[in-house]
Amino acid sequence: MEVHHPHHPTHKKKWTEYLLEFFMLFLAVFLGFLVENYREHKVELERTEKHMHTMVENLKYDTTRYGANLRFNLITCKGLDSFRYYISEAIEGRIDANRLYYCYWKYGRISGNPVPNDAAMTQLKSSGLLRMVKGDSLVNQMGDYYGRIMGTLDIARTAIGKRKDQLYETYRLLFDLRGFDELEQRDTTYQTGSDAFVTLYYNDILHRNPALKLLNTDQHNLQQLYNDVATYELSMRSFNAYIRYCHQGADSLMKRITKEYKFE
Question: Across the strands, what pairs with 175?
Fold first, then answer.
């Protein structure tokens, strides 16, 4: 029978044995690295998809708000058109002060001002996951909407704010609030989904007896009021065009993400 004796303590390994041990150790470390890298990559993809789903929800909110504010502003534009008519009548000496007060308080102070929700895009950028979004084309479209398109809305919002401020300065020259003492006792909270309270409030102005008075009826001031209302109306119509533009951008991006990520 053949007997195998263990290597002598002074036995030296061959260089091939060292190479094999090194290779096995390297392979184990490398495979561990690949597994960990795959795991992290999978987690990042899942997080990215979650953010993209949130972005779709943000865009749904945006399109809803764009539509609601646009409808409000279109009604306001019609009201401003009526406001200009009654100012023209006043310039000709046919002053209906109650109607002038009504038109300013209902149409000259408030405009629909949509504020898009960019929370998901902000999270993608801050977490470094924007690089995980599918395709450069989609990334570019996201950047275009949340950068350039929303930026144009900010510019238009600033412009209409200036026109509104100018209208208010002229309003102060003509309108007297001393007849509004009883309004301090009213609840001025806007009721979401219903204009009943607001309509009742404005109707009270229309039916004031004795009629409200203007501080002055100077034709120059009335003409300035007409010009400011007309300029504000033009800015409002321009603002509405930007809202439509943003609505189209949000809708297009929402459909693109839904298709790319196969969201239902």
Answer: 214
